[in-house]
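User: For a reading group we're discussing how well predicted structures match intuition. Take Transposase. Before you show the prediction, I'll give you the sequence so everyone sees exactly what went in.
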Amino acid sequence: MTDLVEGFEINTDLLLTEEEQLTFSGRRSKFTHKQVLTNNKCLEMTGVLPKLIEWRDEDRQGRKRSGPAPYVSDRAILVAMLLLAREHAPLNETAIAEVLHQRLTDESREYLGLPYALPPIRDNRGGTAEKNWQNHAHNGLQRILEPIDPHPDTKGTRRKLLNNSEREAIFSARDLNTMRRRKERLDWFSQAFIQMTFTMQPRRLRRLQRVANVSVDQTPVPVYTKKGTRKHPETGEYLERKVKEIDAAWYKKGDDWIWGYAANFAVSTANEGGKPANFPITIRAFTLSVPTVDIAGEAVKLGKQLIDAGHLAGRFAVDRGYSSNSTVHDYHRPITALGYKHVFDFDKDEVGKKAGGQKGTIYVEGAHLCPGTPEELVNLTIDANNLEYDEPTYRRLIDERAEYEVRYKEAGTRPGTLKYMCPALGKQARIECPLREIHPEASKKVKPYVLKRNLPKRLDKICTQHSVTIEENDDTVKSKQEFRYGSREWATNYEADRNMVEGMNGFIKAENKEALASAARRSAFGLAAQQVLVTMLIVSANMRKLQSFLKDEIRAAKMKIDMMIEKRRLRLRDHPEKGWGRYKRKWGPPRAEISVPGRDSPLQIVPLKT
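Assistant: Thanks. Here is the predicted 3D structure of Transposase, as structure tokens, for the group to look at:
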């Protein structure tokens, strides 16, 4: 049968039925039961399920839970989220509901305790099955978020636009203790999943990462709503504007401003700077925070999470946003107390001679120098920033300036003190000075010589005593780091570590994979919901990194075996370099018979049977 519709002749027998139209979707393929079991195994390894029960009991303060048991369990919701994350599908309540409703096998439904049909929610009687599953998925996700949401006061307003006074009323009524406790739980939740991805690695790879060498960075996490607060350009006061995501803030990325949150990542780096890592580069710790708020505190949290997980402290590389814009007590001392070794860059106003010199030393870029150090070496980095040196010259002069550093002798008698001695003293003297006698057993090689015009007018203790005690104060702690600033070793480690964290940021933002920069893939409101969803994306990215690393290992091993086989096939005499010579004796043409003296007839040549 044919029919004419809007000028087109079509075959109505091929039209989709209403039921087929309702189920016409891009993602309706079923997950295998093996996939469900694998993701449930990952979930069990995190230990999150019993923790959720513990936190709910703690919040109820001894009161019994009221109401019937939920139809959709925490396990079912979290397994569905892991399945969607590994599929690189959008993470939202609708997608979770589709998984629970239509994308699981009968065996998986029974395993997760899911019914085949759900009763309608009270305010949705008579709704469709899809709507019922969406409502139950929403309730299930909210049950998970409830004990870990630092901002429960916005739960009833997250779908509304709030003006300035409404937002201020919510902020002023918040309980800081509740916020702190819930945020601790939320960070524990995220770290449990991330640590699971590390535990999934083969033991040989985990052992290589016992020492936590990490690089820390922030990256924006945009939210679905783009409308944020706005300030008056002259007075700085907030203009009247309605906002939905009230706990978000503006994140400046280059020339762009992004309304959302900030993801704080600690990314693993190679054990030896500048060399390829022999394990997968993954995100090792993560928190979500408000942009520009307590950046140093979030970095310290990341470092502590790794120590609490049993790792030993290694390198801790950061950019100038952490080292230069944070106070010593907020960032440098806490990271040092955890045992990490600082690796960072200086801002332009932090190089050259600065406060921190003691007993006559000059303090330059984290090092105590001899007071007779030439001025051109003291101002070396300042001149390099003004493009007066090329890189090889700058690195060579940094090595020359290192000869003027005072020599470490031993720890001081008081905590936080160290003993140093003049670099021109003793057998190991590195320079020569008119104020010091050359030790008879000192090396005879040519050394830098301190000119008299560079000597201080008033000699301090570093020039008159055998050794001096120097205190590690705020000035020295803020500038101290693992490698000599500006040296080749520093440049190799710092550049490699920063490249790894930047590479991981780009990896998790791949549009066809996790797409962290796409707010539409994470359409949920509130910091807690966003952190849970980003956690699932990190799990997917880390597992993708591990799979890629293992595949590369297999490919490299196969290539090595193929080369060995090919080498064996190549005969030694055919080898172009190591083979035997190609000399062969020359012979005449073949003959069928030979005339032999004393014989009447020639000798017949018969080939030997072989």
